[in-house]
Design a protein that fits this description.
Elements lengths: L1 H9 L1 H5 L2 H5 L4 H25 L3 H5 L1 H12 L1 H14 L5 H6 L7 H11 L2
Helix pairs in contact: 1-6, 4-6, 7-9
């Protein structure tokens, strides 16, 4: 899963220029560490769930499936994971992030929070 972290690293610059990253700048270093420790597990769970739902790529090539998620989501995937990280650690609420337009909606955050509960 090291290649997934490399893939995410490509979009780190875009992510750090987002409003949510600027607003919670003090958490970025902790989030980067969290991505290495927890983020990879979340991606594994997400690939496993997709495989259980019948996705053949997720079943046969889980790492490629996750890379595809990252490529399609680009910096947005980091924004949503960061939002879930902030909510999970009690630093803010989904409602506050949506109301203040740091994220577009709560569904993506809810997905990552649901996966976090499975760890």
């Amino acid at each position: 899963m090291e290649s997934i972290l490399k893939e995410l690293k490509q979009y780190w610059g875009q992510f750090t220029s987002t409003d949510i990253a600027k607003a919670f700048n003090a958490e970025l270093e902790k989030f980067e560490k969290w991505l290495r420790e927890v983020g990879v597990k979340l991606f594994s769970i997400r690939a496993r769930e997709a495989a259980e739902r019948g996705n053949p790529v997720a079943r046969d090539y889980p790492e490629q499936y996750v890379k595809g998620l990252v490529r399609r989501g680009q910096a947005k995937i980091l924004v949503n994971m960061f939002a879930a990280y902030l909510v999970h650690n009690g630093l803010t609420t989904q409602y506050w992030l949506i109301r203040n337009k740091y994220v577009a909606g709560g569904e993506s955050i809810a997905t990552w929070l649901r996966l976090l509960r499975k760890i």
